[in-house]
Amino acid sequence: MLFMATCSFGLEKVVFDELKKLGIWIEHKKDGHVFFSGEIDAMYRANLWLRTADKVFLVLKQTKAIDTFEKLFEAVYELPWPDLLRGESTFPVLVKSKKSKLTSTPACQSIVKKAIVKKLQTVYPETTFPESGEEMVIQCWLENDELIVAINTSGEGLHRRGYRQNALHTETPMRENLAAALVNLSGWEKEMPLYDPFCGTGTILLEAAMIAYNIAPGLGRFFAFEKWKMCDTDEWEKVRKVALESRDETTKVTLIGSDQSHEQISLSLENIQTLDIPPIKLFDQDIRKVSLEGVGFKPTSTIEKGMIVTNPPYGIKSDAKDIEEIYQALARRYHAWKGISWHIFTAYENIEKVFGQEAKKRRKLYNGGIKCYLYSF
Ligand SMILES: C[S@@+](CC[C@H](N)C(=O)[O-])C[C@H]1O[C@@H](n2cnc3c(N)ncnc32)[C@H](O)[C@@H]1O
Question: I need a labelling partner for 74 at 20 to 30 A (CA). Which of 89, 222, 318, 355 fits?
Answer without folding.
Answer: 89
